[in-house]
Amino acid sequence: MSKGRSLEAVKVVVRCRPMNEKEKAANFQRVVAVDVKLGQVTVRNPRGGSAHEHPKVFTFDSVYDWDSKQLDLYDESFRPLVDSVLLGFNGTIFAYGQTGTGKTYTMEGVRHDAERRGVIPNSFEHVFTHISRSQNQQYLVRASYLEIYQEEIRDLLFRDQSHRLELRERPDTGVYVKDLSSFVTKSVAEIEQVMNVGNQNRSVGATNMNEHSSRSHAIFVVTVECSELGPDRQNHIRVGKLNLVDLAGSERQSKTGVRGERLKEAAKINLSLSALGNVISALVDGKSTHVPYRDSKLTRLLQDSLGGNARTVMVANIGPASYNMEETLTTLRYSSRAKNIRNRPRVNEDPKDALLREFQEEIARLKEQLERRSGGRGGRRRRWKRDWQSLGDGGGAELEELDDDDDDDEDEDEDEEVAEDSVAGGGGGAQYWQEQQEQLESERKAIMEDRSLVVEERRRLLGQKERRIEQLQMEQEAGETLAAKVRAMESKLLVGGKNIVDHTNEQQKILEQKRQEIAEQKRREREMQQQVESWDEETLELKETYSSLQQEVDIKTKKLKKLFGKLQAVKGDICDIQEEHIKQRQDLEQSQNEAADH
Ligand code: ADP
Ligand code: MG
């Protein structure tokens, strides 16, 4: 993969869910046809007939029908993006569509069913498998989880869910959420745990979870930092960030009869999604000089992913049944436009805020401290107290938080078992402390037994010795804490190479590779098919040789019919779009009027 700054289109894929039981029972007609080979979705109006109702055809990077498998989607459409995140690119996957069409199914899926797991759990597996197979690299993986609801940002991993966060911008790293918590995760199980905690928090305070999730945007962020020794013998850090976004339902929110709080809420929900639409329009328009990212929290946060330096895949989810046709068409038009957004993906190399660098430096500093303890013991008495005090008594929290802006990381695991190996407690090892203690103990005994001392003096000397023993114990504990801290920090830096020669692992890898090759092959075939389609039309004329005037008339009539059909389809589209605009305007006017009434 190149580090180049070439343009790359946002990839748009469409997925149509199966008919559900209710729809089947009510005998709803299927109006969506999916041509997987060609990457086309066709929507046919069951009432058919008039020019207005011509079938509408949309072409995408790939399309998935009701039988599509989660893993196929992952391999074909998401795996390449997550691969590039592992190389240090930013990547965004977002699911767009009407409520009930499968956004959450696509993003999260069914957790404990390997076949029905969605993109998010599959990406966890992918990231940690990649790390376990890596060589000569050090990784740090952390996760954040936030929600945008009514234009307010909530940290789904923060204890206090009434807290609201603000957006900030830095010239080097762009837009970020100030004070957003993030948790270092060392395994799939740990990152899943983070996700679970976030999901639990998300449902807190929501009277109806379905309604809440259809009105809020959830963004799970995985940051992967990777450190590797460069040819210049320096450690270089690349940081890739993966945004996994489950958007609010795209259905029009403000409907007649919605008033007061609900109306305000509806207006705010519309805001982020219509801002997203406006950003897409401005980006693909070519004439716009201003892209209105600042109009909503969502678009500001996804700025990099839309016309920025990230790779982006948009999944448009649709339903198959006739009663959803209008929303389905709206979704298809919206996502069709998004295909034309161009990004300039770029690797994030040695960014200033890499946490991995901070970890490496902190570990080096702590190790040096340990070294000093075991080495120059002379200076140790003066230092120990400061070291002791600088080690907080954090830990114990369910999730161990890492605050980017905070320099003193007092929340480190300190309850981890202290082993006697690599970095022994306080340097010099247990033996040293034992000797010291034994010596003090025997000195204490000697004082006790020294009959020549007057009572007063003996008490004073004994007190001195006891204080010294206490001090020694504290010093030992401080050393152990320090050593434990080093170990805890080191354990968070992940390295691979452990099971590389493992046979099953090898087979898995080959299997994965095969799946990827197949996905790639499918993609190429689809592209070729699409090409052939367009060539067919262009060369139709050139290929025709007419044996008679009548034949020429026949063929040209046929072609005329085809073109006429197309013209009608485009006219129909224009009609639809105009109608939609009118509806939107009416909604807006109604919202304004009602807002004025309140
Ligand atoms: P959304 O998040 O867009 O509101 P959901 O993901 O909750 O929609 O999907 C609605 C229902 O449809 C759920 O019961 C889900 O399991 C089911 N569903 C959605 N997509 C699929 C699919 N591709 N295959 C099987 N069931 C699906
Ligand atoms: Mg959902």
Strand residue percentage: 15-25%
Whole-angstrom Rg: 32 Å
Number of strands: 18
Structural class: alpha+beta
What percent of residues adopt helix (DSSP H or I)? 40-55%
Q: How many DSSP H or I helices?
A: 15
| Low-confidence blocks of residues | 376-398, 403-427
Biggest sheet descriptor:
11 strands, mixed
Distance between termini? 56 Å
Bound molecules: adenosine-5'-diphosphate, magnesium ion
Give the CA-based shape. elongated
Descriptive account of the structure:
- This protein is α+β, with helices and mostly antiparallel strands and 598 residues long.
- The chain is 48% helix and 17% strand.
- It contains 15 helices and 18 strands.
- The chain is elongated.
- Mean pLDDT is 82; it is low at 376-398 and 403-427.
- It binds adenosine-5'-diphosphate (ADP) and magnesium ion.
Summarize the structure.
The protein has 598 residues and is α+β, with helices and mostly antiparallel strands. It is 48% helix and 17% strand.
Secondary-structure blueprint:
Blueprint: E1 8-9, E2 11-16, H1 21-25, E3 32-35, E4 40-43, E5 56-59, E6 62-64, H2 70-86, E7 90-97, H3 103-107, H4 119-133, E8 137-149, E9 152-155, E10 167-170, E11 174-177, E12 182-184, H5 188-203, H6 209-215, E13 216-229, E14 235-246, H7 260-285, H8 297-301, E15 310-318, H9 325-338, E16 342-343, H10 355-374, H11 380-390, E17 401-402, H12 429-449, H13 455-492, E18 494-495, H14 503-543, H15 549-597
Parallel strand pairs: 2-6, 2-15, 7-14, 7-15
Antiparallel strand pairs: 1-16, 3-4, 4-5, 8-9, 8-12, 8-13, 8-18, 10-11, 12-17, 13-14
The structure holds adenosine-5'-diphosphate and magnesium ion.
